[in-house]
């Protein structure tokens, strides 16, 4: 109880301080992989009910593997009545879904397939006395009413405070992951801070009623999505129905077979499980995204849902770091007589500017990849300033260069007679360079070093030194990405 209310306070405080921005690191491939892995875990947990097997539910890591081992070890104990009921229910549910999808434009309201299945199965089980005659697994006694409210014991704070922190993080990440997944599917946006605040509020009042910690539920969310629920009215109706069941109608579901509920949950997972067939297309489109999907899905399914989410986020961040550490670099050439410059390796018939090298670094430049930036620049233009200065000292001869410029390490190139010119820089970079006085005191050299387009920079470079040393033009943070 106290762990729940402490978890709620953490989430509310995080929302007040606007910490929901961390959700931007939940990439689409990671979310899809997480949803697929979690769906497979849910299917695994529900599979035993389809067969009527009475095996203990595994708690901890490796639920999918251990559960399937137990299922195959006890497959000979399958309850034929539960198996037949499951087959009939799945057939009816899938048929209802297919009809709903095919004729959704003509149907005014969603087909209540799940309600029909639950009602019909409950009546058949009750009047057929399936539990007595065939030993089917039924819901059994469902207690009604509420436990009297009780104030959480603050004496437990030292014991549960630390446990509440990861619980808050996981519940937030899980909820936002599902929200982003369904937002992408249904075309709406998610405000992470609002979600965080809502989760916190949803855990305060229930903490006085001996409730579990509130978070998103993948199975229930998919059931609602598959039945066509779109607004909070559906949640209000669901809450009212659950309230009536808890207070009055619970005994009527005594004879409902557990396999029926399992069928509803499994059929609702079709959308997420279908993503397995999209893996080849993902691989062709982006190997990086495909690997993120596979890693997240595998970790979620084979280890646990919570660790799978953590592994997916961590691996996505590692991929981002790898991309910034190994960006694409290129030398640009001019397209005919236009002022358009593009990658000479990607396009044909591009002409490099006379005595000028245009260098493009296609990644944000920061402290972690500054060495990579310099190495790729030196390699692209074929000159390392330090080695050039060493040759001058040893041989007393300075060879003629045919290139121009770079950022950050400007002094090295200046010492070997290379002019530094920047083009297509964004405003944040310009502000940083001004603060660092790269353009001199009072920005007196800005007009000589900073240009809005590559073409203007090249014209300036050729005017300044038409027959002397040439230049390397650096195109960093281009205003328009190259077309591929």
From TrEMBL:
<dbReference type="InterPro" id="IPR036513">
    <property type="entry name" value="STAS_dom_sf"/>
</dbReference>
<feature type="domain" description="STAS">
    <location>
        <begin position="346"/>
        <end position="416"/>
    </location>
</feature>
<dbReference type="Pfam" id="PF00916">
    <property type="entry name" value="Sulfate_transp"/>
</dbReference>
<dbReference type="InterPro" id="IPR002645">
    <property type="entry name" value="STAS_dom"/>
</dbReference>
<keyword id="KW-0812">Transmembrane</keyword>
<dbReference type="InterPro" id="IPR001902">
    <property type="entry name" value="SLC26A/SulP_fam"/>
</dbReference>
<protein>
    <submittedName>
        <fullName>Solute carrier family 26 member 1</fullName>
    </submittedName>
</protein>
<dbReference type="GO" id="GO:0016020">
    <property type="term" value="C:membrane"/>
</dbReference>
<feature type="transmembrane region" description="Helical">
    <location>
        <begin position="197"/>
        <end position="219"/>
    </location>
</feature>
<keyword id="KW-0472">Membrane</keyword>
<dbReference type="InterPro" id="IPR011547">
    <property type="entry name" value="SLC26A/SulP_dom"/>
</dbReference>
<dbReference type="GO" id="GO:0055085">
    <property type="term" value="P:transmembrane transport"/>
</dbReference>
<feature type="transmembrane region" description="Helical">
    <location>
        <begin position="160"/>
        <end position="177"/>
    </location>
</feature>
<feature type="transmembrane region" description="Helical">
    <location>
        <begin position="293"/>
        <end position="318"/>
    </location>
</feature>
<keyword id="KW-1133">Transmembrane helix</keyword>
<feature type="transmembrane region" description="Helical">
    <location>
        <begin position="231"/>
        <end position="249"/>
    </location>
</feature>
